[in-house]
Amino acid sequence: MLAQRRATTAAAHRPESIQHPETLRLPATMADKPDISEVEKFDKAKLKKTETQEKNVLPTQDIIEQERKDKS
Q: In what ranges is there compositional bias, type Basic and acidic residues (predicted)?
């Protein structure tokens, strides 16, 4: 009974929009959409060339088998 009273009290203190999530669904407007005009203007040639290096190499099957044998 106490838990039910707490739940009722907590619901009474919540704003209306939290109690009814369907009221938060508004139609999309132009302001809701991201402005991609700057992305379209971006010049890829200004990017620096980089080399990707693998830092966390997964063990091979041989290494896994060796570790299993070492644990036994």
A: 13-23
Give residue 71's identity as a one-letter amino acid code. Answer: K
How far apart, in Å, are the Cα atoms of 61 and each of 55, 66, 68, 71? 19, 9, 11, 16
Instruction: With H, G, I as helix, E, B as strand and everything else as coil, classify residue 21.
Output: helix
d(CA 4, CA 18): 19
Q: From CA 5, how far away is CA 20, in angstroms rounded? A: 20
Q: Whole-prediction pTM value?
A: 0.25
Give the tokens for residue 21. 């999530």
44: its two tokens? 């890829």
First to last CA, the chain: 56
